[in-house]
Write a structure and sequence with these properties.
Elements lengths: L1 H7 L10 H28 L5 H5 L3 H9 L6 E3 L2 H11 L8 H23 L11 H18 L1 H5 L9 H10 L6 H20 L5 H16 L4 E5 L3 E2 L1 H33 L2 H33 L3 E4 L8 E4 L10 E11 L2 E5 L22 H33 L5 H16 L7 E3 H9 L6 H17 L8 H13 L4 H10 L1 H17 L3 H21 L3 E6 L5 E3 H4 L7 E6 L8 H14 L5 E5 L8 H16 L3 E5 L3 H10 L1 H5 L4 E2 L2 H23 L4
Parallel strand pairs: 3-5, 11-12, 12-13, 13-14
Antiparallel strand pairs: 1-8, 2-7, 4-5, 4-6, 6-7, 9-10, 9-11
Length: about 700
């Protein structure tokens, strides 16, 4: 009964709380929360979500993953790689930050949690081994570069096109450098300097928190955000006002077309075949129309991006007028800054003359609601959810193992899968997006003296207090600071030495790491394809290695030991062929094994015995058993006896069950290599003696 309770409620294994443990866990929980608050908002922005959803993802998932996981120190919550994978999965389906995008992110969390929980309950933790370490190294380095570079536009205050290939969008950032916003750059670089400086000179102070507090205070004091709203009637000349109105109308039209596309596609899923075909045809025509509208919007945006409006004095009580700079008369007086147009809504132009800040963050707790599940949505997100589930768990278990190496705690990968799965499922019911384990926050938890998973519970409770009472304090936080936080977080993930190390350990592993790295960069923003390419290549290279295992002909060395004849330049015996096979014998490599034995027989035409050293064979399957049977018969027909040396117990059991040992002859099966060689040599000498006796003339 106690064992069942521990399996259902693994947190009962924690040390019984006392004053010292509670004090240590509260201190660690506070330290992690101070880092998590700004990080969660930054990672939510990376995922294409409003910052508050990062805080939502730092509530229930943090508590549930700690209660049902196996690590006492793993800090779950928003992380960089999973956030980027979330964005790349959803951007093709909806506009970042929109209501539909948020709904899809919540469904994605549900699917990720369901996959992880199912794998944990089915005890499939070992499945993550299919993502080899070199593949993870290659993917992590590429993802870290993509994450860091994706924040350049926010650091520089220039726009980026996220609708196409990542590299194309990045090149677009460099072409926009003439529009660099110096104030934004100053806040971003300043935040990086603060984080670097605190880590070097005052490491006990959380650099992320220091950067957020200082930047927010300066942003508020300097009035970094400068916004205004004016009617289109106040814009001059009239051609500019009409252009803005056309831009707004075109965006509304594009939105309506997208809605119709989704409606037609959804209806086609439930309609009869003939009607479904007609609906899909309509949807395809609408997609073409939507693409045309999107191209027109992009062209107009480039023109409007260069537009600068200046306020001029007006007579009497007339509302102020804003004239485009290129239309100002020579010597005409203006007042205030040059205004940029951020958007149009209901014939109202939204102007901005400063930098971008986080803005209003809704106070209060997230509503507990069921994710909006549908078969169409599940089908569209399942592949991405599976990849995120595997990558997220791989990241979490790697961090947990690294920490367990320092603490000596015993981990259960299947239980950790259950904890991560339940955490993501709980998050999906509280408006969170997919989460995983964080290395930086787990390290903070450990170094701050955390003793049990209660530290994560305290972290979540502190996030709850932030949501209830402190969200207004983040209004003036510059977005450039969030970008700086992300850049500093992923710098530590870039480790090209690990790729080089994989190359030194194994050329195949090195190739897998390099191909994964290049493929992930090449297919960005579709990062799931990059890691799937890496996994497929790693499995393929493994199969290739097992199909062509190491096979060596052996001969006696001067010290009496058996060594590789070719490597040491040894002369092999003419009377006995000796071969070592270093791999389990199964269907993929039986042709190679067969060729190796027959080639050995061809090189020793006078040999009556061929010895196969099988110390490297851990198992054989039906194909392996069949090829050995065939070889024994074929060689026996030529007067050659096949001998097996060093057979392991499990291999011998298979031979005994199938009767193969009788075919080989029990006298030709040896546990020891030296015993087999000695016995065969004795047989050869005995046969030679018999031949000599026959050749003697009769007296």
């Amino acid at each position: 009964m106690n064992l069942l309770l521990l399996r259902l409620f693994p947190f009962m294994r924690w040390q019984r709380p006392n004053r010292d443990i509670l004090k240590a866990d509260l201190s660690a929980g506070l330290a992690v929360a101070l880092v998590l608050v700004p990080q969660s908002m930054a990672y939510a922005a990376l995922a294409g979500l409003p910052p508050v959803y990062g805080l939502y993802a730092s509530l229930l998932p943090v508590i549930v993953a700690a209660l049902w996981g196996s690590s006492n120190h793993l800090a779950t919550g928003p992380v960089a790689v999973v956030s980027l994978l979330t964005a790349t999965a959803l951007i093709p389906l909806a506009s970042p930050g929109s209501g539909e995008f948020i709904a899809l992110a919540i469904v994605l969390a549900f699917l990720v949690g369901l996959i992880q929980l199912s794998m944990g309950l089915l005890r499939m933790g070992a499945l993550v081994s299919f993502i080899s370490h070199p593949v993870i190294v290659g993917f992590t380095n590429a993802a870290a570069l993509i994450i860091g570079l994706s924040q350049l536009n926010k650091l520089l205050g220039v726009p980026i096109d996220t609708s196409g290939h990542f590299m194309v969008g990045l090149w677009g950032v460099f072409t926009e450098l003439t529009r660099l916003h110096w104030g934004t750059l100053a806040f971003g670089v300043g935040a990086i300097l603060i984080m670097v400086g605190t880590k070097r000179f005052v490491p006990k102070v959380p650099g992320v928190l220091a950067a957020v507090v200082i930047a927010t205070a300066l942003s508020w004091a300097l009035g970094f955000e400068r916004k205004a709203e004016i009617g289109l009637a106040q814009v001059a000349p009239s051609a500019v006002a009409e252009q803005l109105a056309d831009w707004a109308e075109l965006k509304i039209r594009a939105g309506e077309i997208d809605t119709k596309v989704r409606e037609r596609s959804a209806a086609a899923e439930e309609a009869e075949p003939v009607e479904a075909a007609a609906l899909r045809y309509e949807a395809e025509l609408l997609r073409i129309e939507a693409q045309v509208a999107e191209n027109q919007i992009k062209a107009m945006q480039k023109e409007i991006r260069d537009l600068r409006l200046r306020e001029i004095d007006t007579d009497g009580d007339e509302p102020p007028r804003f004239v485009a700079e290129h239309a100002l008369e020579p010597g005409q007086d203006t007042k205030g800054p040059a205004w940029r147009v951020d958007g149009i809504e209901n014939a109202t132009a939204k102007l901005n003359a400063g930098g971008k800040v986080v803005g209003s963050i809704p106070a209060g707790l997230p509503a507990l609601t069921m994710p909006d599940l549908s078969l169409t949505t599940i089908a569209a997100l399942f592949t991405a959810a599976f990849v995120i589930a595997l990558v997220g768990f791989t990241e979490a278990i790697a961090i947990a193992r690294a920490i367990a190496g320092r603490t000596g705690q015993r981990l259960n990968p299947n239980q950790e899968l259950i904890g991560q799965g339940l955490g993501n499922l709980a998050g999906s019911f509280s408006q969170a997006y997919p989460v995983s384990g964080s290395f930086s926050r787990s390290a903070v938890n450990l170094n701050s003296g955390g003793r049990t998973g209660l530290s994560s519970v305290f972290t979540a409770l502190l996030i709850l207090l932030v949501l209830l009472f402190l969200t207004p304090l983040f209004y003036h936080l510059p977005e450039a600071v969030l970008a700086a936080i992300i850049i500093m977080a992923v710098i530590g993930l870039i480790n090209f030495k690990a790729i080089h190390h994989a190359w030194l350990a194994s050329r195949h592993d090195g190739i897998a790491a390099i191909v994964t790295f290049v493929a992930t960069l090449a297919v960005a923003p579709s990062l799931d394809i990059g890691i799937l390419i890496g996994v497929g290549l790693a499995v393929g290279l493994f199969l290739y290695r097992t199909m062509r295992p190491r096979v060596s002909e052996l001969a006696r060395f001067s010290d009496g030991t058996l060594r590789e004849a070719q490597r040491y330049g040894l002369k092999a015996s003419e009377d006995i062929g000796l071969l070592r096979f270093d791999r389990s014998l199964y269907f993929a490599n039986v042709p190679y094994f067969e060729d190796a034995v027959l080639e050995l027989a061809a090189r020793h035409p006078n040999a009556k015995y061929l010895i196969v050293v099988t110390k490297g064979i851990n198992e054989i399957d039906a194909s392996g058993e069949e090829v050995i049977h065939s070889l024994v018969d074929r060689l026996k027909a030529r007067g050659v006896t096949l001998v097996f040396a060093g057979l392991k117990a499990q291999v011998l059991e298979v031979m005994e069950r199938t009767g193969l040992d009788e075919v080989i002859g029990k006298e030709n099966i040896f546990r020891s290599t030296d015993a087999s060689v000695a016995a065969v040599q004795a047989r050869v000498e005995s046969e030679k003696e018999k031949e000599k006796e026959k050749e003697k003339p009769e007296e």
